[in-house]
Specification:
Elements: E1 2-3, E2 13-19, E3 22-27, H1 38-53, E4 59-64, E5 69-71, H2 76-81, H3 92-115, E6 120-124, E7 127-129, H4 131-138, E8 141-145, E9 149-151, H5 165-172, H6 176-185, H7 191-196, E10 202-204, H8 207-222, H9 226-241, H10 244-258, H11 262-273
Parallel strand pairs: 3-4, 4-6, 5-7, 6-8, 7-9, 8-10
Antiparallel strand pairs: 1-2, 2-3
Helix pairs in contact: 1-3, 3-4, 4-5, 9-10
């Protein structure tokens, strides 16, 4: 596994390239259970912005360092010390305006994962609370290990989840009742339940096996046409948020441009000739 060029400036994440066209982003604060403070969520937005346009990346795996946690969520102590919860000073409207701007900035940084043009695969293990659900809900594929402990934790710290879980989770799984039960109770649930309700697509015995499975999926995706892969992600996400009729129209417009790619010819010829196609960087 080699360091991915151009990402060494990030302090709280390891960004490497385990195989051709695959990036591995590892949250790297294991002594604090990979809990996030402001500098970290700013960094994650910058990383996924950069990966989105990196021609040497076609698929991304997101993991947490250490054996204990993907992430325990927000570092509550750091948040309290930053003054985020302060009620002193200016009047209520001005405090609310400041806090709203802060939340919107936080949301946008995490949303960068979803907006990334490249497919993203989250590997959840150990403690995966709060922000873990926000971040993994932004990913295209979710895999977990049997030891995972998941929770929409925010009501336990006195607030409604506000970084994306309440907006995305109901669109990922098939039961609004289950989503409300989790969000209202903050109860911990495990791998078997996450698989049964469709939050994850695979469960493996250990973190190592889960990461290995994710890297294999990413490597397979990376062999496909980047034009086709990025278009597929875009069109699925558009379909999620729009009507069937609107999505069909959008698909027609999208492919009227993208079918001009040389990748279509390369893929068709490789099938006929039984060779492995090579696709230009995008």
């Amino acid at each position: 596994m080699s360091q991915l060029q151009g990402y060494s400036q990030f302090k709280h994440f390891n960004v490497s390239s385990p195989s051709e066209f695959v990036a591995h982003v590892e949250i790297n604060r294991p002594k604090k259970l990979n809990a996030f403070f402001e500098e970290m969520w700013v960094e994650v937005g910058q990383i996924f912005d950069k990966l989105s346009y990196d021609p040497d990346v076609r698929a991304i795996v997101l993991t947490g360092a250490g054996d204990r946690a993907f992430t325990a969520g927000l570092d509550v102590q750091a948040a309290s010390e930053s003054g985020l919860t302060s009620t002193s000073g200016t009047d209520g409207a001005r405090r609310a305006t400041s806090q709203r701007r802060h939340v919107l900035e936080f949301q946008e940084c995490i949303t960068k994962i979803e907006k990334c043009e490249k497919p993203t695969i989250a590997v959840l293990h150990g403690i995966s609370f709060g922000l873990a659900i926000d971040m993994s809900s932004c990913c295209d594929i979710r895999i977990c290990s049997k030891d995972v402990k998941l929770s929409v934790k925010e009501v336990d710290i006195g607030l409604a989840a506000d970084i994306g879980t309440l907006s995305r989770l109901p669109k990922i799984v098939g039961s609004l009742s289950w989503v409300k039960e989790l969000a209202l109770s903050a109860r911990i649930f495990g791998a078997e339940e996450a698989l049964a309700f469709g939050f994850v697509s695979q469960v493996h015995d250990s973190k190592a096996q889960s990461v290995d499975a994710a890297l294999k999926i990413a490597a397979l995706i990376a062999t496909k046409s980047p034009v086709a892969v990025q278009g597929t992600k875009e069109l699925i996400n558009h379909a999620r948020d729009n009507t069937v009729a609107d999505s069909l129209k959008y698909t027609a417009v999208w492919n009227s441009a993208m079918l001009q790619s040389d990748d279509v010819k390369s893929a068709l010829l490789s099938g006929l000739q039984k060779t492995k196609p090579k696709f230009a960087k995008l």
